[in-house]
Design brief:
Layout lengths: L1 E6 L5 H15 L4 E6 L3 H7 L6 E4 L2 E2 L15 E3 L2 E3 L4 H15 L1
Parallel strand pairs: 1-2
Antiparallel strand pairs: 1-3, 3-4, 5-6
């Protein structure tokens, strides 16, 4: 399964997601995590970047709000503890489990 972490440098939250994805990938040999720095608004529009950090599982933004715009901004996630700059490890695991079922 291919996981892409899309981010821009001015948002610190991508580093939290990177750490969480790295920990999950260390447990699962079937995961490949790549990082993609989005540097311009034009690139954000081209790749459908809904803010930093964005997590794509096999090319699909698994946390995307259909009404969210694209652009160079920090993204907010709904977590069990309220709004946060990154999904929890449990939310990431659940998103990957959905990806596992879809791939079968």
């Amino acid at each position: 399964m291919d996981i892409a972490l899309l981010y821009f440098d001015d948002c610190p939250n991508w580093k939290v997601v990177d750490e969480r994805l790295s920990a999950i990938a260390a447990e699962r040999a079937d995961l490949t995590v790549t990082r993609h720095l989005v540097e311009t608004l034009e690139e954000a529009e081209r790749v459908g970047f809904h803010g930093s950090p964005s997590i794509l599982v096999d090319g699909v933004d698994v946390f995307a709000d259909p009404e969210a715009g694209v652009g160079l901004s920090c993204r907010v996630y709904r977590t069990p503890d309220g709004l946060a700059g990154a999904p929890t490890v449990e939310q990431l695991r659940a998103a990957l489990a959905v990806g596992d079922r879809t791939a079968r």
